[in-house]
Write a structure and sequence with these properties.
Blueprint: E1 2-6, H1 7-12, H2 14-20, E2 26-30, E3 36-41, H3 53-70, H4 77-84
Parallel strand pairs: 1-2
Antiparallel strand pairs: 2-3
Length: 86
């Protein structure tokens, strides 16, 4: 993660921001005029638990259902992608 963020925004959600950062991620903190004030650098690593194939497949299937429910085009996503690749 490499981002620019206002100090007020960072302070408001500092715990959440720190949870999302991995070792070496940097957030440049800006004042109200957009001038850089400081840099926030994460020093910790976050170990991720291994995801089973079944869990991974379930996540992707759920995402596919959400995309299908929101799809508003006359053509399917596969048809659109096929045309884009031509």
């Amino acid at each position: 993660m490499k981002a620019d963020m206002g100090v007020e925004t960072a302070v408001r959600d500092l715990p959440g921001l720190l949870r999302r950062m991995h070792a070496g991620d940097t957030v440049k903190l800006l004042d109200t005029d957009g001038e850089p004030l400081a840099a926030l650098v994460s020093l910790r690593t976050r170990r991720r638990r291994a995801v089973s194939v079944q869990e991974w497949d379930a996540r992707w299937s759920a995402l596919a259902k959400r995309v299908s429910a929101a799809w508003q085009g006359d053509k399917t996503a596969v048809e659109t992608l096929s045309e884009m690749r031509r």
